């Protein structure tokens, strides 16, 4: 039996699984957080241009698109919402796989569920399975995969496919075909987010559309290559070095990776988080004011130095991938949320001055523990010559230091209320977290009437 055939058999058997309340609660957290990221990205310039590019697709179908009151068919909805939900950089992370599962997985499943008038309970079960399959693949191809590829665009196709296969109740053979078809369309190069462009979020949208399409094609009888993952010219051989396929099914069904998600506490690239959290810890512990700081030295892992390399960013995109800026913004503004990426913040002279005091280098210990641990070592030197230091061994929001339900809800309200209003945001949160009897159409009701155009 090939790897994908084994996944196919497991997914078919998962249709009868009754998830416990803990696992379902984690799925609800993921769905809530996806909505926050989706709505946060919906009024961006990138989202406006994206919807304009798809103008011919609007007015047909019955799937909602964030930022528009017009509907589209399922495939367009998967791509558009998958892209929009990744724009604001607030979506969740599977740390061990360097992967954002929500945007491809939930966007595809939500579109299909809405088209089929499925219940939220059905959607949650599909999300759990989509997360499980894709996070397992993402984990065993790291860390070499992340050298060149954006895991959300590559492993993401398996999350969207598995979730849609679950909703469609495909048989084991069809699931294998769907996953195999999706895998050959996996794509997303890191170079796309090493400069200011709008391409990166489309990796997530493409992965969502690929998975949905692959599941529908398999249902119609289109076949795929069963050994697509482990074959000599397959996914593993092409996209990473020495994939650990032997670990792929360890404890499958006994544990659920959706319970191990990182939810972002800051609105920027997650590689910045350990340094931001370390600085926040030192500021609070020692009551440090910005005027007291002479220098800040950050030791991190290699990906931080490669991806978060901008200094004095000129655009919101660059700012989200700038360690010096985000750390400075945390000190001056108190938070690294949406306000930190407004034009006024980018031109803030106090932030700019503080950036010049920050240096970033690779710390061997932090680097050796990536990607299983996202850590940073920070030293702050004061104007009087004194020094304080902190080793941030994880990020606030990681599974070993998770955001509380209230913190996650506060973040959701901060992102959604300015865009859909307090009543709509409150109703949406309640429907996701408390009412298992509602349909996916009911959820979309809270945000698909908002037209920014």
The structural domain count equals 2
Looking at the structure, what is the overall shape? globular
Largest sheet report: 4 strands, mixed
Find the CATH topology of the largest domain: 2-methylcitrate dehydratase PrpD
> How many beta strands in the DSSP annotation?
4
Helix content: 40-55%
Strand percent estimate:
5-15%
* Fourth CATH level, the homologous superfamily of the largest domain: 2-methylcitrate dehydratase PrpD
Spans of at least 5 consecutive residues whose pLDDT stays below 50 are: none
Q: How are strands sequenced across the largest beta sheet?
A: 2-1-3-4
Radius of gyration: 21 Å
CATH class of the largest domain: Mainly Alpha
